[in-house]
Amino acid sequence: WLNSLPRQFYNGVSMTDDCFDCLLPYVSELARKEREDYIVFTKVLQSIQFLDSATLLDKELIKWAYNVALTRSTLVGTRELRIAPMADYCNHGAENEAEIKYDQDGNCLVTATRDIQAGSPVRISLGEPKDPSPLFAKYGFLDETSPATYCKLLHLKKEMEGLRYEFKDLLFSTGGDISPAVYDVMLYSVLGKNDPNLQQQFYQAVISGNEEAKNSFHQQYFSYTLDGLKQHVDTTLRSLDELSRKAQSLDARTHPRAPIILKHNEFVYNTFLRVQSNLNNMG
User: Fold this and answer.
1) Rounded distance between C-alpha atoms, residue 200 and residue 192, angstroms
2) What is the distance between the alpha carbons of residues 61 and 230, in angstroms, rounded to a whole number?
3) What pLDDT, on the 0 to 100 scale, is given for residue 255?
4) Which of 78, 81, 113, 178 is the most exposed, fewest CB within 10 Å of its CB?
5) SS3 of 98, please?
6) Nearest 10 degrees: CA dihedral of 120, 126, 131, 135?
7) Is the CB of residue 27 less than 8 Å from the CB of residue 153?
8) What is the C-alpha separation between 226 and 138, in angstroms, rounded?
9) Alpha carbon of 245 to those of 13, 248, 249, 252: distances in Å?
10) How large is the greatest C-alpha to C-alpha distance in the chain, in angstroms?
11) Is the torsion defined by CA of 181, 24, 260, 125 positive or negative?
12) Do residues 25 and 236 make contact, with C-beta atoms less than 8 angstroms apart?
């Protein structure tokens, strides 16, 4: 089982500074967080007495072991991670066919939740199924079946949190649709720059769930929201062009993660193109 495990990983832990420079800020932040966690892990290892000095000095071995623990384990309860050989071969799927549980004796049980045809993958959920970026940063693969991606309004993170939204709420679908929360955050930002009193009124409508009042704001100020979203999408597409050119300039022999970074950028780019088309049709 150990010999069958991958020797090369493509996630944030294994990325270089050149890799980070080829990603949009949101994805780069996710990937950097994974590497920061790994650095903390390596420092903690220094205090573990049963590890010999040769192991502690073998950086590639430590990184491999960390990646195995990170990417092959499943969460048990709220804090414990466990690895069960064979069960760790399950793939990820937005629509999964199995779930992993442990009984009272610690035995790992993989149970099908629906009929699985012979020759088909056994898929479990490794995380948020709607946006491929967190999975890309943690596991190093791109789930091209994901139905959406975060809208990349990272510069409006404060506004997002103010309206009690999370990244998973602010989505652009691969078909070009925009989640209602995106409109809310953009309008909240626009109002804040022009009339804090109106912004507060809109905030109360969103937080209280007053859809009638909220929709009234959106109808009255839609042209401003639309302009803000158009500008954001246009800017992001230009950034993706530049970032992908950087990734293409990397030698895949020394930067083996460049191809998957390009695939991720392409997924986001194509999604934003469809969103751009829909926004242009709105006026």
Assistant:
1) 8
2) 47
3) 95
4) 78
5) strand
6) -110
7) no
8) 33
9) 23, 5, 6, 14
10) 68
11) negative
12) no
Q: Which residue has the tokens 């909240």?
A: 188
Helix and strand tally (H, E) in the chain?
Answer: 11, 8
Which tens digit of pLDDT belongs to each residue from 2-32?
899 999 999 999 999 999 999 999 999 999 9
- The long-range contacts involving 162-166, CB below 8 angstroms and separated by at least 24 positions, are 162/188, 162/203, 163/188, 163/203, 163/206, 163/207, 164/207
From 201, 202, 209, 175, select the one nearest 186 (Cα to Cα). 202
> What pairing do the DSSP bridges indicate for beta strands 98-102 and 80-82?
unpaired
Q: How many CB atoms lie within 10 A of CB 192?
A: 18
- Residue 183, number of CB atoms within 10 A of its CB: 19
Low-confidence ranges of the chain (pLDDT < 50): none
Answer for the pair 130, 147: CB distance below 8 angstroms, yes or no: yes
pLDDT value for 94: 77
Q: What span, in angstroms and rounded, lies between the C-alpha atoms of 201 and 120?
A: 52
pTM of the model: 0.91
Give the β-pairing of 148-150 and 171-173.
antiparallel
Q: How far apart are CA 274 and CA 266, in angstroms?
A: 12
Instruction: Using the structure block, give the residue that is written with the tokens 């679908």.
Output: 173
Encoded amino acid at 21, one letter: D
Rounded distance between C-alpha atoms, residue 123 and residue 272, angstroms: 28
